[in-house]
Each structure stands twice: as C-alpha cells, then as structure tokens.
Design a protein that fits this description.
With about 200 residues, the protein is mostly helical. The protein is about 65% helix and about 0% strand. Helix 2 runs antiparallel to helix 6, helix 3 crosses helix 6 and helix 5 packs antiparallel against helix 6. The relative contact order is 0.16.
Length: about 200
C-alpha cells in the first residue's frame, strides 16, 4: 500500500494482535471497577451494557467513517488507507483486523468518553464490555472472510458481509450483528436470482 515498507508495516497485523493488546486491558478495567467499589454482579451488568453500546458504534463507524469518501485533495488516498484497501483485497489475512496504530488511539478516545460520561468506577467495566464487543467484531470479521461457518447465524453473517463486499457496499454495515442494519433498513438485499 505504501512505497515505504516502514509505513506499510503499520497497516498489516497478525489476527492474534488485538487479543494480545486488549484482553489484558479488559481484565484491568473489570478489576478497576471492582476495586473501585462495584460488586461483581454490577460489574458484569456493566460489561454487558458496554457490549450493547458497541453494537451501534460498530454500525456507525463502518457506515460513516469506513465508507466516508472525502471530497478534497488526497481524500481518495485517505479513504483507501482507512477501508478501501480491504474492499480491494478482501481476503488479505493481514488486513482483516484493525492495526494497533489505529485501534489504540480510537480505544483511548472512547475510554476518555466513557470516563467523562459515566465517571469512575462505572466507566471501567462499561469500557471493558465495549472492547469485548470490538474483539467480537474483529474476530467475526476475520472468521467470515476465512472460514465457512457451520451455524445458521454464522452463515447468515457471512452471507450479509459478502453481499456488502461483492454486491452493494451501501448495505450490510453490521459485521458481528445485523441488528442496526435491520433498524436502519440497510440489510443487504437478496436478489431474485439468488433466491433460486
């Protein structure tokens, strides 16, 4: 993607890296919540709420940020670096999870928002759940590109994401969940020929 091998290095990442980076953070956030006085039960509920907060975030990040096409000099290149390269090379295993050069600053931004909005210690397990949702998204994305799911849900998620890639990228922004695509009427369309 870049003439510089150094810059290109930061856009490629092994699929294990997000787990290595974020699983210790998730554990630390839950521990900080409990250490800050939250009960285990409350912390567990807040983690679930954080996962729920992730789902619309995933949808809107994909729809508005990843598919944003800026209209200024260099905008096409910026879009290509953010998400266009994935659509041009959808099976490149090293470009299926978000590289830490992008995910860590985004995580820091969201962490700041969680602490600002929910305070401490409640923001800690909420943020942990949010990051759990992010990891589910990242690994679901990797899985639907490189495996053939055996479950009905897995097959449906793969079908919808492949329709997003190969049929119409204006539909199917939810990768790990189709909930918000259903709400906002962006579920990928099944053509008559596909039904047969």
């Amino acid at each position: 993607m870049f003439e510089s091998r150094f810059l290109d290095f930061f856009t490629r990442v092994h699929p294990a890296v997000p787990a290595v980076v974020f699983l210790p953070l998730i554990a630390a956030m839950v521990w900080l919540g409990v250490d800050g006085g939250l009960s285990t039960w409350t912390s567990a509920l807040l983690v679930l709420a954080g996962i729920a907060i992730w789902t619309p975030t995933e949808y809107w990040l994909h729809r508005l940020v990843f598919h944003w096409q800026p209209r200024f000099p260099g905008g096409e290149r910026l879009h290509f670096m953010i998400h266009g390269v994935h659509h041009d090379h959808p099976n490149d295993a090293m470009r299926l999870v978000m590289p830490p050069a992008a995910s860590i600053p985004l995580a820091a931004l969201f962490f700041g928002l969680f602490v600002l909005i929910f305070g401490t210690p409640h923001g800690y397990p909420l943020f942990a759940g949010f990051i759990v949702g992010y990891l589910v998204y990242d690994y679901t994305h990797y899985y639907v590109h490189h495996r053939t799911p055996k479950t009905k849900l897995g097959r449906k998620l793969r079908e919808q994401h492949m329709r997003h890639h190969f049929q119409d990228h204006h539909y199917g922004f939810g990768v790990s969940s189709p909930i918000w695509d259903a709400v906002f009427r962006t579920l990928p369309r099944v053509r008559r020929a596909d039904r047969r």
